[in-house]
Amino acid sequence: MTHSRSVRPFYRPMRPRRRDEQHRAATPLELFFDLCFVVAVAQAASSLHHDVAEGHLAHALPSYLMVFFAIWWSWMNFTWFASAYDTDDDVYRITTLVQITGALILAAGVPRAFTDGDFSVITYGYVVMRLAAVAQWIRAAAGDPAHRAAARRYAVGVTVVQLGWLLRLALPDGWGVAAFVLLALADLLVPAVAERPGMTPWHPGHIGERYGLFTLIVLGEAVLAISVAIQTGLDAGDHGLWALAAAGTLIVFALWWLYFDRPVEAPDRLPYSLIWGYGHYLIFGAIAAVGAGLPVAVDHERHLAHVSATTAAYAVAVPIAVYLLTVWVLLVRRQQHGAVVVAYPVVAGLALLVPLGPAPVQVLALLLVALVTLTVLLRGRDAGASATLTS
Fold first, then answer.
1. Are 77 and 130 in contact, with CB atoms under 8 Å apart?
2. Are 74 and 102 in contact (CB under 8 A)?
3. What is the pLDDT of residues 159-168, one digit of tens each?
4. CA dihedral angle for residue 366, residue 370, residue 375, residue 378, rounded to 10 degrees
5. What angle do CA 267, 64, 41 make, to 5 degrees?
6. Alpha-carbon dihedral sign for residues 299, 304, 306, 310
7. Which end of the chain is more exposed for a tag (fewer CB within 10 A), N or C?
8. Cα–Cα distance between 108 and 365 in angstroms, integer?
């Protein structure tokens, strides 16, 4: 006997998902989408590592920020759209695979963007992804009359900005960064304008899970980067890297713990949901930058980096400080209180002083472990106090 409801159709009208849907979880297609983005994140982190290790700091930072914006913004827009309109029909899957193809093109252009300042391949991949997203929004406008105005605004806004990205390639070299900033701001404004007629029905819990999964992917890239750097050193006969390997591992473990200490869920009000969603650019970018900075520290330990010990330490300390401050703003201040709220910015400030002293990576690891310990102890005390009040 055939059950027609179990057969995935080639096409179905794109109806909105319910915001209060129970047990809303990431789909295999979303997980595959994230997996393909690992390539782009790895390329960005690896290029940042090599630029910093070679002492090209003035070139490394703007290149990394621009490349990572393209990666993060493409991922984020798919994630929020899928949370609201994932129909899982064949047309939806094919369109998403086109977006993934754009991500792979984007990843292929990352090394050229760092070495030659040539963003043409990245732009082509980015535009492929975003125009495929326009097709999705057109489907949403047709299938969801209640949010048709928002879907149309998305489709028009994204299309106009993509034309701007293509025109940017024809500008003289000196205008590239200014045009990038202007177009990035235009991209950021599209959701703020489009959602004003009425928020599309994305699911706060599902968005929280998706952001958590991408955090894990970026953390995994950091683990891989430090592992490869240590392995390379050991293969070359340098066995004095164990302390650095242990410190790097503790740093990544602590970053994971601090993000996932409490359940992660997106706010359901428009202004703060935008701040929360956009703010994760700094969280994701900082974690990937830690994954680039730790190999720089390994290179310096092996006398391969063309930077000072202080610069190599700041390659780890600065992204850690950015991460702590952003987690503090987006997650900690909303969910916790008391000493923990004060501890995050204090540790971030101390992290920026650590490179001026000895064994900076090890000291950074100890600072983060201390912050995790404080978080756990105070959470246990709060839980005990709550249990006492309710008994």
1. yes
2. yes
3. 999 999 999 9
4. 170
5. 65
6. positive
7. N
8. 33
Kindly report, residue by residue over 241-273, the tens digit of the pLDDT: 888 888 999 999 999 999 999 888 888 888 889
Beta-carbon contacts of residue 122 (< 8 Å; ≥ 6 apart)? 67, 70, 106, 109, 110, 113
- Residue found under tokens 């950021």: 188
Q: Which two tokens stand for residue 161?
A: 């900005």
* pLDDT tens digits along 325-365: 999 999 998 777 778 889 999 999 999 999 999 999 999 99
What does the alpha-carbon distance between residue 200 and residue 274 come to, in Å, rounded to a whole number?
13
Mean pLDDT of 297-324: 95
Residue 99 and residue 30 in contact, taking contact as beta carbons nearer than 8 Å:
no
CB 269 within 8 A of CB 386: no
Selection from 141, 21, 5 nearest residue 81 by Cα: 141
What six digits make up the tokens of 115?
């070495």
DSSP 262: S
- CA pair distance 370, 373, nearest whole angstrom: 5
**pLDDT reading at 78 higher than 90:** yes
Here the tokens at position 334 are 């909303």
In what helix (H) or strand (E) does residue 82 lie, and over which residues does it extend? helix 57-85
- pTM: predicted TM-score of the whole model, two decimal places: 0.92
How do residues 92-147 score in pLDDT, each as one tens digit?
999 999 999 999 999 999 999 888 888 999 999 999 999 999 999 999 999 999 99
Q: What 8-state DSSP symbol labels residue 9? A: P
Report the C-alpha gap between 382 and 388 in whole angstroms. 10
pLDDT value at position 384?
56
Taking the C-alpha atoms of residue 284 and residue 95, their distance in angstroms, rounded to an integer, is 25
Q: Measure the CA–CA gap between 280 and 301, rounded to whole angstroms.
A: 31
